Amino acid sequence: MEKVLKPISLQEAKAYLDECAEKHEAVSIVALAKDGHKIVMKGWTVTSGNSVGRTHNYRNNENGEVRKIIDVLLFYVNGHPVYI
Questions:
Q1: Can you list the pairs that 31-34 forms with residues at least 24 positions away whose Cβ atoms lie under 8 Å?
Q2: First CA to last CA across the chain, in angstroms?
Q3: Residue 78: which of 2, 6, 1 has the closest Cα?
Q4: Alpha-carbon distance 47 to 4, whole Å?
Q5: What pTM did the predictor assign?
Q6: Are residues 68 and 50 in contact, defined by beta-carbon separation less than 8 angstroms?
Q7: Is residue 79 within 8 Å of residue 4, measured between CB atoms?
Q8: How far does Cα 14 stand from its chain's mean position?
Q9: Each residue of 46-79: pLDDT tens digit?
Q10: How far, CA to CA in Å, does 6 sit from each of 48, 61, 83?
Q11: 40 in Cβ contact with 54 (< 8 Å)
C-alpha cells in the first residue's frame, strides 16, 4: 500500500518553492495546465517565483525546457497534496 504524505496548504507550498528557487533545488510537481490536462514534472529545478503573478518557473535539467506554472493549479509538490 502506498503511503500518503501529509497535505500542505497552498501558502506552505509557495513558501517551500520560494526556498527551492533561492537554492535552485529540483522538485517534483503535479499541476493542471491552462488547457486542462495534467502536467507531471519530476526533477525540475525551480528557477524563480513571482508573488505578484502567483507563478513559479521551472527548468528541465535534461533539455533546458522552461515552464511557468500558476501556483493555484498545483495538485502535488514532492508527493504532498496541496490544498487551497
A1: 31/69, 31/70, 31/73, 31/74, 31/75, 32/73, 32/75, 33/73, 34/70
A2: 27
A3: 6
A4: 27
A5: 0.89
A6: no
A7: no
A8: 8
A9: 999 887 789 999 999 999 999 999 999 999 999 9
A10: 25, 28, 11
A11: no
